[in-house]
Amino acid sequence: MKPAPTRATLREFVVYFLKLGTLGFGGPIALAGYMQRDLVDERGWIAPDDYKQGLALAQLAPGPLAAQLAIYLGWVRGRVLGATLVGIAFVAPSFLMVLALSALYLRFGGLAWMQALFYGIAAAVIAIIAWSAARLARTTLGRDRLLWGLFAVSLIVTAWTAREIIWVFVASGLIPLLARARARPSMPTKTLLVAPWPAWLTSGLTGAASVGVLWKVFGYFAAAGLFVFGSGLAIVPFLHGGVVEQFHWLTERQFLDAVAVSMITPGPVVITVAFIGYLVAGPVGATVAALGVFAPVYFVTVLAAPHFRRLAASARIKAFVDGVTAAATGAIAGAVIVLGRRALVDLPTVLICAVSLAVIVTMKRVPEPALIAASGVVGLLLKHAL
Asked: pLDDT over 70 for what percent of the chain?
């Protein structure tokens, strides 16, 4: 790889990502754009070719795009140490914010004003996810009829079953792979964690969680991290199937609140898993969930980075990822239908969703946290008036 034009110290590099993780709103595409503007164009800390390769890896490999790109750029600057420190610096601010919000939610979630806020927020979240699904479909599927077919199947299955079926993802990856290259990719494995924790650190909605529950939390979110390609929103339908339908850790409303919390905090959207983990098993549950979802991102990036140029040229890998991405995009669209049935419960919520969608489409630079905050205030006023 070509060396960066300007040699920044590792400390400066880590401080930059700490600031980005603290103030970086706008979703994965916006965060990737900030990195290009700041590190490549303005400061010259990263060579253009290194940035492009990192972006390609983030799109091809499993894991949320922004976090994976940040870890890769950390690897370019300081190899394993750089990747580790940058990954922690980028994720830690939003994780700490979610911990604080989770504690407040657990303490005050039953209060009328908190429920009224999320009454409006949930409707706005549906609009944001719907628009994200439309953009993803347009940019990732192109005119490939096979990918659009996989998208449609995944959409229908998700909307019909109200859960994410892993085998739909696997089959969606294998179909274009076999059609283009007639070969099978190796499937990733899960890593599980078992560790005892003091009971007072593992108290969620239903009291102290057992070690077995923590083991399930880590394993489930580690598996989820392996099937997130590109946008962090791809994890939403996957999590809905497990968290709400399979394990019954959260109700539909609590799950929507979890997605909303991830959108009003900076950093990667997948930090929503920390909120879910907190409600299930307290601070330790939040930590275990975050470690689970980000561990695959970290290890895939660090292991693939030295060999990425050769891997990126593989037609088999590209075909498999194209299929999984199509399925993930379809699942996001299906999740809009599933979650919309629970969030859009009356005329005011339908109107909040419609207005939010109109604002997103016509005023493309409106920050999502600002839109969500405004919707929360509207929901609070409507509930008070009613």
From this structure: 83
Per-residue buried b or exposed e for 303-318, using 16+ beta carbons within 10 Å of the residue's own CB: ebbeebeebbeeebbb
Residues belonging to the chain: 386
Predicted pLDDT at 62: 74
Residue with tokens 């009328």: 112
Quote the tokens at residue 292.
Answer: 């689970």
Please indicate, yes or no, if residue 116 is contained in any of the structural domains: yes
- Residue 235's pLDDT is what? 73
β pairing state of 203-204 and 229-230: unpaired
- Cα angle, residue 381 at apex, residues 377 and 385 outer, rounded to 5°: 170
Mean pLDDT of 70-89: 94
Question: Please, which residues have CB within 8 angstroms of residue 277's CB and are 6 or more apart in sequence?
Answer: 217, 221, 285, 286, 287, 288, 289, 290
What is the spatial distance between Cα 227 and Cα 121, in angstroms, rounded to a whole number? 27
Decide: 40 and 16 in contact? Cβ < 8 Å: no
d(CA 283, CA 266): 20
Structural domain for 353, as ranges? 110-385
The position carrying tokens 């920050």 is 367
Q: Is residue 363 situated within a structural domain?
A: yes
Judge whether 164 lies within some domain: yes
Supply the mean pLDDT for the chain.
79
Distances (CA, A) of 111 to 114, 115, 118, 136, 301: 6, 6, 11, 37, 43
Distance CA 339, CA 381 (A): 23
- Cβ of 261: how many Cβ atoms within 10 Å? 25
Q: Are 269 and 262 in contact (CB under 8 A)?
A: yes
Residues 220, 291 contacting (CB under 8 angstroms): no
Tell me how far apart the alpha carbons of residues 60 and 175 are, in angstroms, rounded to a whole number.
17
Q: Is residue 146 part of a domain?
A: yes
Per-residue pLDDT, 287: 93
Q: CA-CA distance, 8 to 12, in Å (whole number)?
A: 6
What is the token pair recorded at 331? 């699942």
Structural domain tally of the chain?
A: 1
The pLDDT tens digits for 223-269 are: 887 766 655 666 777 788 788 888 888 888 788 788 777 767 776 76
